[in-house]
Amino acid sequence: MLKFIHITDTHLVEEGQVLYGLDPCLRLSQCVDSILHDHSDAALCVVTGDLAHVGHRDAYRQLAVQLHRLPMPVLPILGNHDSRGNFKEHFPRVPTDVNGFVQYVAPIGQYRGIFLDTNEPRVSHGVLCEQRAQWLKERLAEDEQPVLLFMHHPAFHVGIPSMDCISLLDAGPFQRAIEAEKHRIKHLFFGHIHRPIFGSWHGIPFSTLRGTNHQVALRLDDCMKVPGSHEPPQYGVVLLDEGIVTVHLHDFLDASERFWL
Ligand SMILES: [Fe+2]
């Protein structure tokens, strides 16, 4: 059994600033405290983008300070709010592909983790261009291992119109890249939506979760303004074993009573 942590949408800002009435760095530090207390045995921690709210250098500095508190390797990717250049300054060891995109492969137990870069400067929707999709296709063709895929933007609609219009703008290159090997993709993890959502897409199981700072309310009507909320922040605890991927979500600030049933 292998355990890993899934964090998403930390949206860090400059030190001393608040975002929607909250301190994103304090929230992340509380998330890290919880992981250290309950899940320090996790093999690794993935962070699926929107690491910073406006891509500020100081946000990445604080992010590095907090993530360095974790004893396990941390594998971050970019979201639409991130700055690729400023991220690279503070995370120079995170690999990039030959075109400079923050895309890489990492072993996760018996699985092969493939991490994608859907950031496109100055827009909110995601882009996996032909270059990035070609890289993905080549990685999928390299071996026969089962794959876990990580990306910030979902490649499909989740039923919240204000978020669906800023998902992956053109899923075509992504779909073509995975078409021949999608039976080997055992789970797709993403961020961006700031809500817990589970399902499957063309037979690929997927999950996402709330961010560590602010959330998106459940509005399935045709409202095109993004409905914010302060529902409880979460991180994911993922358990992997032969043929099984189990995703738990932990509301790490929940202080409700615990008792024996
Ligand atoms: Fe976000």
Structure in words:
This protein has 261 residues and is an alpha/beta fold. The chain has a single domain (2-250), classed as Purple Acid Phosphatase, chain A, domain 2, CATH 3.60.21. The chain is built from 6 helices and 13 strands. It has helices at 24-38, 57-67, 84-90, 130-141, 161-164, 172-178, and strands at residues 2-7, 44-48, 74-77, 104-108, 111-115, 147-151, 185-190, 197-201, 204-208, 215-216, 228-229, 235-241, 244-250. The protein has a 6-stranded mixed sheet, with helices on one face. A 5-stranded mixed sheet has the order 3-2-1-12-13, with no helix packed on it. Strand 1 (2-7), helix 1 and strand 2 (44-48) form a beta-alpha-beta unit. Helix 1 (24-38) runs parallel beside helix 2, helix 2 (57-67) crosses helix 3 and helix 4 runs parallel beside helix 6 (172-178). The structure holds fe (ii) ion.
- Unique bound compounds: fe (ii) ion
Helix content: 10-25%
Low-confidence stretches: none
Overall, the morphology is globular
Strand and helix order:
EHEHEHEEHEHHEEEEEEE
Query: CA-to-CA gap between the ends?
Result: 27 Å
Share of residues in strands? 15-25%
CATH topology: Purple Acid Phosphatase, chain A, domain 2
**What is the radius of gyration computed over CA atoms, rounded to a whole number of angstroms?**
17 Å
CATH superfamily: Metallo-dependent phosphatases
